[in-house]
Amino acid sequence: MKQILCIAAVLAMLSACNNKTNQADASGNFEADEVIVSAQQNGELLSFQAPEGTTLRAGDTVGQIDVKIPSLQKAQVEASIAALQEKTSSPAEKNQLVKKQLAVQEAQLAQLIREQQRTENLVEEDAATRKQLDDMNSQVDQMRKQIAATRQQINLDDYTTGVQNRSVLSEKAPLQMAAAQYNEQIRKGLIINPITGVVLTRYALQGELATVGKPLYKIANTDTLYLRAYADGTQLPQIRLGQQVQVRIDQGKKDYKSYTGTITWISAKSEFTPKTIQTKNERANLVYAIKIKVKNDGFLKIGMYGEALWSKQ
């Protein structure tokens, strides 16, 4: 009888030691970085494919919002830009007739100069009068003045045309900015998935009216999860950023499944222990939140309960 009692006492002691050894240093729930994707444009959801549980990659197009109005507005602005080009004129084309007139005048001047030289020779030989030479000199001078006036007109036309063109083209820049704005609205009509992850919740369906800022779906990258656990003040000296710790989850009634995790964040402020969390000292008044990054093998789920151990390592 004494032997039986002795064996029972030893078994009880071993069980107590085993429970103490298995006691976790901190516990909490797994969470992930969740992203809520919202509409960036107003309009009907023409297409939207984001079923819950679907894995999406960053950059995937998951839907299209109706953007007919901004598309028409963009086409109208582009037509206005094209019309501005028709309003401008080329100085070369505008002065073509004047330049032809100048060429004729220069040819006439060359002829008059030859006649002037001939008249001068005749005057020296007393074959022509002085008045004839004076008349010829007057014609040459008059033609030179006409040529100067024609050249001045060409320069003035070039300047006037340039001013007119600049005035017309000054309207082009604001129109181009308006076209860029409409193009951005059209681009925002496409629903582009921002991160690689699993769709957790869908908030909208095809055919519904989307408005700017309306949530469409929630997605999270579940390849890596974070155990948000809580440690009391006496445990803080035992942990540091970048430290590797053991993370475990329940596997059946008595067993555990273990993972290796890395502490990525330690809160700088203490807080009261959440009601659903039991720390090593069983609900200490003030605790510090920590985050432990754990590589997910597919068995970890968001919201799942987990425990962290570091004091026995």
Number of E-type strands: 14
Low-confidence stretches: 1-21
Number of domains: 3
Structural class: alpha+beta
Please tell me what the overall shape is.
rod-shaped
Q: How large, in whole angstroms, is the Cα Rg?
A: 45 Å
Number of continuous helical runs: 6
Keywords:
alpha+beta; Elongation Factor Tu (Ef-tu), domain 3; 4-stranded antiparallel beta sheet; 313 residues; 6-stranded antiparallel barrel; 3 domains; 42% helix; OB fold (Dihydrolipoamide Acetyltransferase, E2P); rod-shaped
Topology:
Elements: H1 2-22, E1 26-31, E2 34-38, E3 43-48, E4 55-56, E5 61-65, H2 68-87, H3 91-94, H4 96-124, H5 130-169, H6 172-187, E6 190-192, E7 197-202, E8 209-210, E9 215-220, E10 224-232, E11 244-251, E12 255-272, E13 286-295, E14 305-309
Antiparallel strand pairs: 1-10, 1-14, 2-9, 3-5, 3-8, 4-7, 5-6, 7-9, 10-13, 11-12, 11-14, 12-13
Helix pairs in contact: 2-6, 4-5
Please explain how this structure is put together.
This protein is of the alpha+beta class. It has three domains: 24-32 and 222-309, Elongation Factor Tu (Ef-tu), domain 3, CATH 2.40.30.170; 34-65 and 190-220, Beta Barrel (OB fold (Dihydrolipoamide Acetyltransferase, E2P)), CATH 2.40.50.100; 74-188. The chain has helices at 2-22, 68-87, 91-94, 96-124, 130-169, 172-187; strands at 26-31, 34-38, 43-48, 55-56, 61-65, 190-192, 197-202, 209-210, 215-220, 224-232, 244-251, 255-272, 286-295, 305-309. The protein has a six-stranded antiparallel beta barrel with strand order 1-10-13-12-11-14. A four-stranded antiparallel β-sheet has the order 2-9-7-4, with no helix packed on it. Strands 6-5-3-8 form a four-stranded antiparallel β-sheet, with no helix packed on it. A hairpin with a 3-residue loop joins strand 11 and strand 12. The radius of gyration is 45 Å and the shape is rod-shaped. The relative contact order is 0.20.
